[in-house]
Structure to design on (683 residues):
């Protein structure tokens, strides 16, 4: 994969394993929240572990789907299908808890 | 459990395939190792050795059985793990570089993680699957997967996923170990035993009387027979060693070869040849009776034959023994230098009885001695009850008998009670029992030794005086005189007295002999003078006889002449008959 070289304020990575219902839901939810709150300042990278299993170790992935906020630091992880908007926004520090 | 019944048919059906762990003793208890291709649960308290045991399983698998393994750690980081087991001589980094093992640290930090909605642990599966495939692993360890429960809150999902994980592991065909922390009243805190049903091993770490002992028990092992007892195990610089059971049968090989005790007098008491090889000997006695000296002599004798001996000392340090034996003219150092003799000194209180047993096992296995000496077993009583010490010694004896190793124990019997019974109660187990005891008499203390028993050989029933001199040990017959059994200087005095008497008697006899000789000479000369006298008398008698004869002859002649003269006058006639001449002889 090519490292994402962007100056976006939010770099998000979504780990999935194939096109499962949960993965699809998670991606849809994520895109929705980002469009609503971070329009233009984010980039989402979707990593399918079925294709690149070696990447799971680096980000300490064990649950699927997992959303990793790489930027801004510190790294945060949200696991699950992201169905609870409130939790996702708090978890990503988009909205203060 | 129906294990015993299953065992009956075990011969006719293919048995459960097993993967050897390579851990000393564990494979014996499990009858070959852990179930191949199935998960095994190892549970125990914190610090009971779970991680180490599973790591040893992986490392030994990779090194000894050429089965690469994946170690997935949920607690420690890979480099921490590597450092922890480096002390056991395992170079994890090199093994990783050689693609023999793979460490993966799963870091779960609750504060970093937010949960929302449905998820599964597919990520873990993929990681594990990738690790397994990358080195073609046959063995997997998950240590400790329960950490997931502290990192994630949705127990429903976790339980479902764990169930799936164990199924998945079985499908993968890897031999897996899952470790779990022990919970209250349960084997594991989160009930992992529900998922792992094939083999469960429980580790325990107990402290009794300030002495800690690690123990291991196989709680269940489906489809195979296994030892059900608690087995002590030891963690030392070479990893884990589990002590296997007492052998259940008394069907040992025996030897008829005899070996010398190193003390000529003692050999003589034992039918002139010494002990049987592979037998067990107990030397008991009160303090300071020379038990250690006897043991050291036996050890030195073993080495003199070019055999190996291991000496477990529970009281003295090796240097002390070397020095002390030097004083009685026994050079032990020589055998230490050429490697035939090995000392292993440890305080009994260093660790528990079982640990002592495990440690001795290990040393014996490693050194492969022909003779083992335990000096003294009495001190072991300080760390266990009589029953425990006995049971430990029985197991040690069993092991030694199995290996055909001759063993000599020394035991201290208490000064006050000389009831010929050792506290450890091993006297009924040993083959030969020597008793050294004080004989207090005539204001001095001497040592007496006798053979209490010696199975299968003729042995002396005599008490011998046991002497420890600058030149070594020796046995002398005690003096049995009119005043009873004498030892020490009393014996010597008595012997001296007897010696003097002997000399006097000898002198007296000599004198008598000479007198007889003289008498004989006198008589002989008398006899010869009488003989001469007799001869002269005989000659005298003979002379008279001859004269008579002569006279008679002459007279006869005269008579004939006279007759002849008469016939001539009467005209010849018949010639006169020849006279009957008689020769006079004596």
């Amino acid at each position: 994969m090519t490292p994402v070289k962007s100056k976006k304020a939010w770099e998000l990575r979504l780990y999935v394993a194939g096109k499962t219902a949960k993965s699809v839901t998670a991606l849809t939810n994520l895109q929705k929240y980002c469009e609503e709150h971070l329009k233009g300042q984010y980039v989402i990278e979707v990593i399918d572990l079925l294709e690149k299993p070696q990447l799971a170790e680096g980000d300490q992935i064990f649950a699927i789907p997992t959303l990793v906020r790489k930027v801004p630091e510190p790294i945060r992880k949200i696991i699950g299908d992201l169905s609870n908007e409130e939790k996702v926004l708090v978890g990503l520090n988009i909205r203060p808890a | 459990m129906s294990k015993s019944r299953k065992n009956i048919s075990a011969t006719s059906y293919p048995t459960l395939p097993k993967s050897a762990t390579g851990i000393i003793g564990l494979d014996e208890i499990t009858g070959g190792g852990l179930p191949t291709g199935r998960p095994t649960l190892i549970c125990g308290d914190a610090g009971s050795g779970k991680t180490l045991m599973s790591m040893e399983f992986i490392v030994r698998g990779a090194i000894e059985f050429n089965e690469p393994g994946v170690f997935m750690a949920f607690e420690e980081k890979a480099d921490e793990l590597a450092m922890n087991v480096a002390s056991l001589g395992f170079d994890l980094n090199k093994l990783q570089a050689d693609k023999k093992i793979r460490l993966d640290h799963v870091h779960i930090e609750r504060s970093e993680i937010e949960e929302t909605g449905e998820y599964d642990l597919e990520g873990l599966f993929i990681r594990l699957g990738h690790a397994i495939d990358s080195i073609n692993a046959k063995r997997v360890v998950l240590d400790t997967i329960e950490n997931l429960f502290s990192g994630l809150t949705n127990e429903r999902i976790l339980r479902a996923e764990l169930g799936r994980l164990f199924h998945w592991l079985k499908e993968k065909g890897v031999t897996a170990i899952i470790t779990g922390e022990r919970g209250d009243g349960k084997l594991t805190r989160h009930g992992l035993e529900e998922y792992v049903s094939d083999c469960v091993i429980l580790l325990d770490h107990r402290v009794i009387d300030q002495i800690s002992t690690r123990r291991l028990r196989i709680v269940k092992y489906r489809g195979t027979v296994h030892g059900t007892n608690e087995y002590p195990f030891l963690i030392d610089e070479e990893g884990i060693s589990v002590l296997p059971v007492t052998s259940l049968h008394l069907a040992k090989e025996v030897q008829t070869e005899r070996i010398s005790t190193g003390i000529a007098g003692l050999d003589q008491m034992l039918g002139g040849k010494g002990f049987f090889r592979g037998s067990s000997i107990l030397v008991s006695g009160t303090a300071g009776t020379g038990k250690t000296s006897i043991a050291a002599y036996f050890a030195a004798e073993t080495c003199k034959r070019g055999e190996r001996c291991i000496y477990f000392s529970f009281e003295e340090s090796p240097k002390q023994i070397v020095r002390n034996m030097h004083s009685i003219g026994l050079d032990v150092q020589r055998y230490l230098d050429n490697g035939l003799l090995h000392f292993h000194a440890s305080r009994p209180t260093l660790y528990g009885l079982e640990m002592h047993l495990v440690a001795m096992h290990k040393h014996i296995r490693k050194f492969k001695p022909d003779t083992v000496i335990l000096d003294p077993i009495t001190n072991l009583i300080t760390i266990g009850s009589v029953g425990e010490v006995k049971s430990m010694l029985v197991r040690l004896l069993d092991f030694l008998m199995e290996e055909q190793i001759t063993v000599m124990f020394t035991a201290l019997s208490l000064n006050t009670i000389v009831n010929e019974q050792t506290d450890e109660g091993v006297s009924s187990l040993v083959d030969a029992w020597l008793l050294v005891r004080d004989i207090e008499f005539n204001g001095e203390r001497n040592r007496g030794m006798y053979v209490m028993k010696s199975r299968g050989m003729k042995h002396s029933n005599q008490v011998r005086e046991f002497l420890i001199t600058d030149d070594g040990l020796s046995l002398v017959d005690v003096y049995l005189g009119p005043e009873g059994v004498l030892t020490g200087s009393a014996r010597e005095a008595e012997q001296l007295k007897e010696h003097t008497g002997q000399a006097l008697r000898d002198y007296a006899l000599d004198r008598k002999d000479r007198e007889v000789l003289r008498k004989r000479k006198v008589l002989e000369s008398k006899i010869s003078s009488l003989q001469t006298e007799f001869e002269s008398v005989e000659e005298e008698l003979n002379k008279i006889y001859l004269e008579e004869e002569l006279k008679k002859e002459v007279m006869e002649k005269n008579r004939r002449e006279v007759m002849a003269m008469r016939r001539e006058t009467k005209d010849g006639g018949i010639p006169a008959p020849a006279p009957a001449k008689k020769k006079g002889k004596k």
User: Anything to note?
Assistant: The longest helix of chain A spans residues 21-37. Chain A has one domain: 10-91.
